[in-house]
Amino acid sequence: FVSKMNVSGADPVMLVPRVWANPHNFDFDYIGSAMLALFEVLSLEGWLEIRDIIMDRMGPQHAIFVHIFVFIGTLIGLTLFVGVVIANYSENKGTALLTVDQRRWLDLKGRIK
C-alpha cells in the first residue's frame, strides 16, 4: 500500500510505497514456523536476533515475552537435566555393575535382615 509522508513545511506530501514483509528467517504467521522460531530461541542460538527484530517491529515491551520464554525454558531444561543425572546416579549407585548372582545375593541378604 502507499502512504503519505510529510516532508516539511506547510503542505508538501510525498507518497512512499510500504511493504509488509516478514523477516527472512522466521515468522509467527503459521504454527510450524512459530514453533521453529521458539525452538531457536530456546536453544539460545540466534535468539538475540529474534528478540531484536521483535523489538524493532512491535516495540520493546514485546521483548519481555522472549526473555520470560528463555528463562522458563532454561529453568525447565535445567530441572530435567538434573533429574536425569540424579536418576542415573541413584540407578548406578552400586547395583548396576553387579552380576546377576551378586544381585541375587544382595536381594537375599536384604530379605534376611
TrEMBL record:
InterPro entries: Ion_trans_dom (IPR005821), NALCN (IPR028823)
Keywords: Membrane, Transmembrane, Transmembrane helix
Every Ion transport domain range: 18-93
Record localization: Membrane
Organism superkingdom: Eukaryota
Main location group: membrane
GO MF assignments: monoatomic cation channel activity
Gene Ontology, cellular component aspect: plasma membrane
Spans traversing the lipid bilayer: 62-87
Membrane topology value: Multi-pass membrane protein
Listed GO biological process terms: positive regulation of synaptic transmission, cholinergic; positive regulation of synaptic transmission, GABAergic
PANTHER family: SODIUM LEAK CHANNEL NALCN, SODIUM LEAK CHANNEL NON-SELECTIVE PROTEIN
The protein's name: Ion transport domain-containing protein
